[in-house]
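User: Structure please.
Assistant: Input sequence and predicted structure:
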Amino acid sequence: MTGPTPTIVYKDDDILVLDKPARLSTTAPGDEPSLVRIAATLDPRAPHLHPTSRLDAEVTGLVTFARTSVGNHHLLEARKRGQYQRLYVGLAMGRPEPIVGSWTSAIAIHGRDRRFRCAVPEGTPGAKRARTDYEVGPVAGPLTWLWLMPRTGRTHQLRVHAAHAGVPLFGDRFYGGVPRVTQFDGSVVAARRTMLHCRSVQIPSMWGGAPLRLDAPLHGDMAKIWEALGGDSAALEISRVPERWPRESRPPSSPPSLPPAPR
């Protein structure tokens, strides 16, 4: 493939975590380029390489793979128990109220185009329950830095929930996000993709002890947009995460920093 390639963030006997670039699907039909295909070349000795999370093609950041059947079982069980935590950064158009909350609209396949999703009332036939916890961060021009914590894993969940809340993600043309903003001096800041990044992942250790916490900084295009609009560069630092997100590894007996995912 041309352009940026995935990088290995973490690897052990059972788990592989990659940092995915933009414009690369996690999975793809036939011989089309995909993260799964590239992962196989990066880790050719993995006996059972399988993605246990997925990102849309435009979205960057951490994707977790099981390298073995044991690893796959562990990650799936962690997800069921609400111990597989992911933290995203989204640059949103506008500022949601309240500044800390949850979006709980169910998500259904769009009636006019099955490639897309829409938010609907819970209990709508065919819809799946969904929950996204969010926290408002700093502001840069018309954009708000959003910390997004999915508690379920529906297709396009974060994008749909943000749009439904009236704060679509910058660059997300499919869900109401504008592709560019004009500043007071007349300069234009444009987004060539949806401004969404999987920043951190935390999963329980397979061997006991502290959970595994991994981080990936924002990719260059997203960081440049933030700074071009006058955003606080300190927000780009890995350590600047919400108080509700665990900053350090915790022993298994400690309660999670975030409320448990709904069952």
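The two ends are 40 Å apart (CA to CA).
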